[in-house]
Each structure stands twice: as structure tokens, then as C-alpha cells.
Amino acid sequence: MDTSIGEGYLQVATALVDEDTAQVPPSAYDLRRAISTTYYALFHALAKAFADAVIGPNQPEGSGSRNAWLEVYRALDHNKCKEACNSVNTRFASNVRGLCADTVQLYQRRLRADYDPLYSPDLTEANECLGIAEARIEQLKASEGKDLRALAVWVLVHAHGTKAVRLANKPRERPDEQ
């Protein structure tokens, strides 16, 4: 699976913190931008993975399916994604739960980097965010379609009826998972 925008953002974030290409040392603004950009890299990789899983990749130009693909891609909302990822439960595999936890973590770090004027990031944190985004994008590329479709529905569908079904089918926690 090609995650072009996500991988492009990863390249931008890498260039901002890479000691061979960045200012030495990178400025606090470079580090802020790198941290924020790692979240956007993962966000766009998720959007593409969901659209590919639900509609299918490589839709012909001008086709209804291409428009549907774009609608699914654009349906991913930052806050709804965070809420859905925070509520992922044991019905999902541990790697999907980890993906969701890391998505929320990068989202929170992005907010801090973008909006906290007192925040002073360091190179270690920027590289950690970059490593998380890289690993999770690779995970998305290797994920099975059925897992991505299930996660896409969980994250993208928010209708009232959907919430009722989710509550009715909520798995009970086993004592060993508490």
C-alpha cells in the first residue's frame, strides 16, 4: 500500500531533525514542526489505509468509486479519530490497540507542539515521535484488509444506531485483562 502523503510528511519531519540536512542543532521551531508533522504523517496514512480498505486502491479517474474513495479519505476527523482510538477495546488485536494508542499520543504531542507557547521540545522527543510514526505507517502497510476495514468502521462511523450496536456488543473484560 502506498501512503504517499503520509510518507511525504515523514520525509519533511526527518529533514527537520536530521543532523546532516537540518540546522545543527535544529531550532525549537524545527522540533515543534517535526513533532506536529509526524502526527499528520500518521493521520494521512490512516486516511489512505481506510479509503483503500473500504473502497479499494487505485480507483479510475472520474469514476464514482474514486469520488467514494476520496469521501472515505476525507471522512477521517482529528477529534473523532482520537475519541474512537481512546475507546478501542479488546475486540481489536493488540497491534491495532497499539496503533490507536500511538495515534492518540502523537495527536496530544502535536497539540502541545502547535499550541503551547511555553513548550520546549528536544531532539530526543522529536526523534521518538518520528520513530512511532514510521513504525505505525509500516504496520498499516502490512495490515490485512479485514482489520483495516473493521478499524475504519470503528473510527469513521458515528451514527446513533452504530453507538447502540457497539454498546450492545461490548465485550466483557476478562479478569486477566484488568
Q: Based on the structure, what is the oligomeric state of the protein chains?
A: single chain
By DSSP (H or I, 4+ residues per run), the number of helices equals 8
The domain count comes to 1
Helix and strand composition category? mainly alpha
- The radius of gyration is 18 Å
- Low-confidence spans: none
**Mean pLDDT over all positions:** 89
Proportion of beta-strand residues:
under 5%
Distance between the termini: 35 Å
The succession of helices and strands, N to C, reads HHHHHHHH
Shape: globular
Question: What does the secondary structure layout of this molecule look like, with pairings?
Answer:
Blueprint: H1 4-17, H2 28-54, H3 64-75, H4 78-86, H5 94-115, H6 123-142, H7 145-156, H8 160-168
